[in-house]
TrEMBL record:
Coiled coil stretches, renumbered: 4-58
Gene name of this polypeptide: Caprin2
Molecular function as annotated in GO: signaling receptor binding
One Pfam family linked to the record: Caprin-1_dimer
Domain annotation Caprin-1 dimerization: ranges: 61-129
GO biological process entries: positive regulation of canonical Wnt signaling pathway
Protein name stated in the entry: CAPR2 protein
Family (UniProt): Belongs to the caprin family.
Organism the protein comes from: Caloenas nicobarica (Nicobar pigeon)
Keywords associated with the record: Coiled coil
A cellular-component GO term for this protein: cytoplasm
Domain of life: Eukaryota
Length: 130
C-alpha cells in the first residue's frame, strides 16, 4: 500500500511512471478495498476463534462436572452397599434374617454366612475412636 501511495504521489508531481507502475496506481482503490476486507475478515475469524475457545472450555468444565458427579454417585453406591453388608456382621441382624423377623426376609444359614464373609472381605474395619 505504501508503494502504491508513493507511485500516486509521484504521478501527481508529474513524474513519468512505467506501465506496471501506472497499472498499479489505477488499481489503488481496489487494493485498499481488498486490504480493508481482509482486515475485517481477520477480525471475524479472530472472534470466531475466541468463541470456539470459550465453547471448548465450557464443554470441558461441563464434562469435568459430569465426571465428578458420576464418581460421587459410584462412591455413594459403594458406601450404601458397604453399610448394608456391615449390618450383616451384627448379631441381631443375623438373627432377624435367620428367622425372617422384623421385616427381614428369611435367609438360609449358608447364604447368610456367604454374605457375612463377603462383608468382612469388602468392608474395612472402622475405628470408632477416629
Amino acid at each position: 500500500q505504501l508503494k502504491l501511495e508513493d507511485y500516486k504521489d509521484r504521478l501527481k508531481k508529474g513524474e513519468a511512471l512505467n506501465q506496471d507502475q501506472l497499472e498499479a496506481v489505477e488499481k489503488y482503490d481496489e487494493v485498499v478495498h481488498n486490504l480493508e476486507f481482509a482486515k475485517e475478515l481477520q477480525k471475524t475469524f479472530s472472534g470466531l476463534s475466541q468463541d470456539l475457545l470459550k465453547a471448548q472450555r465450557k464443554a470441558q468444565r461441563r464434562e469435568s462436572l459430569l465426571k465428578l458427579e458420576a464418581e460421587k454417585k459410584k462412591l455413594r453406591t459403594i458406601l450404601q452397599v458397604q453399610y448394608v453388608l456391615q449390618n450383616f456382621t451384627q448379631e441381631h441382624v443375623q438373627k432377624d434374617f435367620k428367622g425372617g423377623m422384623n421385616g427381614a426376609i428369611y435367609l438360609p444359614s449358608k447364604e447368610l454366612d456367604y454374605l457375612i464373609r463377603f462383608a468382612k472381605l469388602t468392608c474395612p474395619e472402622r475405628n470408632e475412636n477416629l
